[in-house]
Predict the 3D structure of the following.
Amino acid sequence: MTTPVRALPREKISRPPLSEAEACTLVIFGATGDLTRRKLIPALYELQCLGGMSIRCEIIGTGRTPLTDEQFRGRLRETLAESKDAIDMNDPRWRGFEQRLHYITGDPNDAEFYPRLAADLDARRRAGGNANRLFYIATPSALARPIIEGLGAAGLAKNDAGWARIVIEKPFGRDLKSGQELNRVVSDVFAEEAIFRIDHYLGKETVQNVLVFRFGNSMLEPVWNRNYIDYVEITAAESLGVESRAAFYEQTGALRDMVTNHLLQLLTLIAMEPPVSLDADALRDQKVQLLSAMHPMTVDEVKQRTVLGQYGVGTVAGKPVPGYRDEPGVNAHSDTETYAAIDFRIDNWRWEGVPFFVRTGKRLSSQRSEVVVRFKRTPQALFSRAPEKDVEPNQITLRIQPDEGISIAFAAKRPGDELRSIGVEADFSYAESFDGKLPSAYATLLLDVMQGDSTRFTRSDEVDAEWRIITPIEEALAQLPATEFPNYAAGSDGPAEANALVGRCGHHWRPIAPPRDGTQK
Ligand code: BG6
């Protein structure tokens, strides 16, 4: 049993106003896509409302679908009105923002498109527009190369009048080879300080807080190693299915979509050595060092330490939902994985022998991303009659989302005559301690790009290191007998085999959906 003991908030802290970045013209490739509608436009508007983005910024969407400016704005209005954080379209700030949204029709594979884009940007500048240019590749990754080359050939990567920067969405390629190739292509055209490889997890407040929690508290460092930590569990569970992204997801799957980037980044922040400063390179050097201590798995290791899954029909939040193969746009015999669980190991002095269990999946019982750091048991069960009745070992849970916060589980004396222990929990919650909504990850990262700060972005050698870990897994899986899909019901906690994966080490996963009695945060 766990009794919550709340750490009282000392004060409510409001978010300081943002410093305004230099104005720029932002060109979005893939402007009719899901990412632009659901994430980028709301984040840009948020930035404007918070004072981070100049009201002189212009946003130009591009895509193959022929649209006028007004049609583009109308489509965005429809999506935004449906979203859970619906924007008030009558707010004068939105009306001003909307007037700065434009659209140019163009096929990214058509070399003729780029000189036309360059001419448009020049005309805007001559008419008093911005000199700085920001290009955002929000298309499927196969289009990144023609876009980068097109920009280079049209002279858009160089800008004597201001700066030119490029943002590339993950996944960066499909594997080590194509990732390296993409890095080569982009480095031929843009300088490294102008390239921003975005992984939106790094923009989340709670992910950045991993660094502060680890390196801003001296009590942790002495115990943050294999001598005291039994295992680490990293979860990114989603209750949503593939939604309208079947075309992208069929080519990507859970390993490339979530593990190669978001989950390895979280693992790196939990396990890396302290950086000497918060300078972009000092931080990223440590991350690369950690990733290179994770040796590529052999086929046998992949067999032992990896479980894939795909959801079948089931019930989520009381509603029946179809299986993955029945989703619109998905091949009826698809072998794309919608779930992955891996037991990663880190071959260095700090972590030798400590499993890092990582799992992610769509259509699971609940939406929950968190890191659980589980400590070893005390050597002696002093406070219980039988060792097996001893309270659970100490555990730190970093709740990435939702209900952002940190809890620490420990033993306390159960009131009464006897010296008996009971498990209790101290809890820090962002909502209780801080005023206002947390900034969205995309707003934070877009502001970073406008300010030219790449600390929260992935360096090319970091991307290489991530693929060096994932590509051998993908290759080994191709050689192993395929798992029979679907192998978990929508609304469950994933395939049964994933329990065996951690069970072999004597552990069990933390349930994804919190129990109804509220005993687990
Ligand atoms: C994206 C993936 O990068 O992250 C999506 O492509 C996934 O498939 C999303 O749903 C999850 O992000 P968040 O911020 O909702 O946890």
The chain is about 35% helix and 20% strand.
